[in-house]
Design brief:
- There is one protein chain.
- This protein is of the alpha/beta class and about 400 residues long.
- The chain folds into two domains: about 1-185 and about 305-390, Aminopeptidase, CATH 3.40.630.10; about 190-300, Alpha-Beta Plaits.
- It has helices spanning about 1-30, 35-50, 110-125, 150-155, 215-225, 225-230, 270-290, 310-320, 340-345, 375-390, and strands at about 55-60, 60-70, 75-80, 135-140, 165-170, 180, 185, 190-200, 200-205, 240-245, 255, 255-265, 295-300, 305, 330, 350-355.
- Helix 3 (about 110-125) links the parallel strand 3 (about 75-80) and strand 4 (about 135-140).
- Helix 1 runs antiparallel to helix 3 (about 110-125).
- It is elongated, with a radius of gyration of 23 Å.
C-alpha cells in the first residue's frame, strides 16, 4: 500500500488550494438546516466538474454521489458529510467571515463538505486502483430534529445499502493534522426537554394570593438533579441540563407561566426510556405539591453513536500507516450528539475526528470558532486512504 499512500499524499497536496477555496466559499455562504439550497447547487456543480454522477433532491437538498471502482459490486462504502450551518452571528475578527447575517458554519460542516469533495476527487482519480463502490452522502439538517440522517435513510438515499459508512468531524482542540478514533460507544443520545409550569400569577408583593411559578420552576430544576445523582446507574454516562428559563414577569409581577428548556443525554436505551418517565413524574409531582401544574414535552432526539469495533480498529491501524503513531489519537466518549448515530444503529460505522486547532479559535457552536484549513490536506487524504484500505481488503 506504500505506493497508494504516496499517490494519495501527492494528490492531497496538489488539490489543497482548490479545496481550501471551496471551504472559503462554503464558509462565507452558510445556510440553516434543511435550507441548504445554494450549498446543494454548489456541491452539484463541483461533482459535475469532477465527472462524478449523483442523485439530488433527497430531503430537498441532499445529494448522493457514486464512484465505481474495479468490480463495483464487491463492497459498498458510504462516506458522509453534513451541510447545514447554525443560527449564530460570526465574530468578525478574521477574514472570510459569513456573508449571511446571523448564520455561521460554527460546527465545521464547511470543512466536512470541502474535505469530502477532495476525497471524492482523489478516489475518482484512482478508481482503477480500488474495488467496489463509494457513495458520497451530502446530508442536510444535522443540527435540527428530526435529523437529516434519519430522513435521508427513510427516503432511500443509501441505495445500494453500504457494508460500512464512515464520517469525520472537526475537533478544535486537537492539533491540525491529527486524527482521533474510538471503538464502540462514542457519542450520546440526545432528547430535548420542554417544561411549562402553569399557575395563578399575581402581584410580587402578595405571593400568598398566587402560585409562585418562578419558585416552583426553580424547585423543579433542583429536584430533577436526582435523576442523574440518585437514579442513574453510575456506569452509564448521563447528563441532564437546563439552559433556558423564560419567566416573563417583572420585579413585582409573578407570571402565570414559566418555561424551562433542557437536554437529556445518555448511552443506554433502556435507561433513556426510564429516565424520561422519571423527568415527567418528578416535574409534575413537584409542581402539584406546590399548587401548580407542569406540562412536559420530551422530544425524542438522536440515538447514541456506536462505532463498529473491528472496522474502527482496522481504520486506526490504517491511519497509523498513512500518518504515524504520534498523529493518531485515542478519543474518549463524548456527551455531545450527532445524527450520524442513526446510521450507526443500522450499518457498521466508523465516525472519527480530525484536528483543526487554530490560535484564538473558540469552541464548536460559538461565534469565535475558527478552523485551520490546511488540515484539509490531512482530512481528505486520510479518508481516501481509509476508503481504499477497506475496499481492497
Amino acid at each position: 500500500m506504500d505506493q497508494i499512500i504516496n499517490k494519495i499524499k501527492e494528490l492531497s497536496h496538489e488539490y489543497l488550494q482548490e479545496i481550501k477555496s471551496i471551504r472559503t466559499h462554503l464558509h462565507q455562504n452558510p445556510e440553516l438546516s434543511f435550507e441548504e439550497f445554494e450549498t446543494s447547487k454548489f456541491v452539484q456543480q463541483k461533482l459535475d466538474s469532477y465527472g462524478i454522477p449523483y442523485k439530488s433532491g433527497f430531503v430537498k437538498t441532499g445529494i448522493v454521489g457514486k464512484i465505481e471502482g474495479v468490480n463495483p459490486s464487491k463492497k459498498i462504502l458510504a462516506l458522509r458529510t453534513d451541510m447545514d450551518a447554525l443560527p449564530i452571528c460570526e465574530n468578525e475578527t478574521h477574514t472570510n467571515c459569513s456573508k449571511n447575517e446571523g448564520v455561521m458554519h460554527a460546527c465545521g460542516h464547511d470543512m466536512h463538505m470541502a474535505s469530502l469533495l477532495g476525497t471524492a476527487k482523489i478516489l475518482n482519480k484512482l478508481k482503477n486502483e480500488w474495488e467496489g463502490t463509494v457513495l458520497l452522502i451530502f446530508q442536510p439538517g444535522e443540527e435540527l430534529l428530526p435529523g437529516g440522517a434519519k430522513l435521508m435513510m427513510e427516503e432511500g438515499a443509501l441505495d445500494p445499502e453500504p457494508d460500512l459508512i464512515m464520517g469525520q468531524h472537526v475537533l478544535p482542540d486537537m492539533e491540525s493534522g491529527h486524527i482521533g478514533f474510538r471503538e464502540g460507544m462514542y457519542m450520546a443520545s440526545g432528547d430535548e426537554v420542554y417544561l411549562t409550569v402553569k399557575g395563578k400569577g399575581g402581584h410580587g408583593a402578595m405571593p400568598h394570593k398566587c402560585d409562585d411559578t418562578v419558585l416552583i420552576a426553580s424547585h423543579i430544576v433542583v429536584a430533577l438533579q436526582q435523576v442523574v445523582s440518585r437514579h442513574a446507574d453510575i456506569r452509564i454516562p448521563t447528563v441532564l441540563t437546563f439552559g433556558r428559563m423564560i419567566a416573563e414577569g417583572a420585579t413585582n409581577i409573578i407570571p402565570s407561566e414559566v418555561k424551562l428548556e433542557g437536554t437529556f443525554r445518555t448511552m443506554n436505551e433502556e435507561w433513556r426510556a426510564k429516565a424520561k418517565q422519571l423527568i415527567t413524574d418528578i416535574a409534575q409531582s413537584t409542581a402539584k405539591g406546590m399548587g401548580a401544574e407542569c406540562e412536559v414535552d420530551i422530544r425524542h432526539g438522536y440515538p447514541f453513536l456506536v462505532n463498529d469495533i473491528n472496522y474502527t480498529r482496522s481504520a486506526k491501524t490504517a491511519a497509523i500507516s498513512f500518518l504515524d503513531d504520534e498523529r493518531v489519537e485515542d478519543m474518549d466518549i463524548r456527551m455531545t450528539t450527532e445524527d450520524f448515530g442513526f446510521y450507526s444503529q443500522k450499518y457498521p460505522s466508523c465516525f472519527y475526528r480530525f484536528g483543526v486547532k487554530k490560535e484564538r479559535s473558540s469552541g464548536l457552536h460559538t461565534s469565535g470558532f475558527q478552523a485551520e484549513d490546511s488540515s484539509l490536506e490531512t482530512s481528505m487524504g486520510i479518508m481516501a486512504y481509509l476508503a481504499i484500505d477497506f475496499l481492497n481488503k
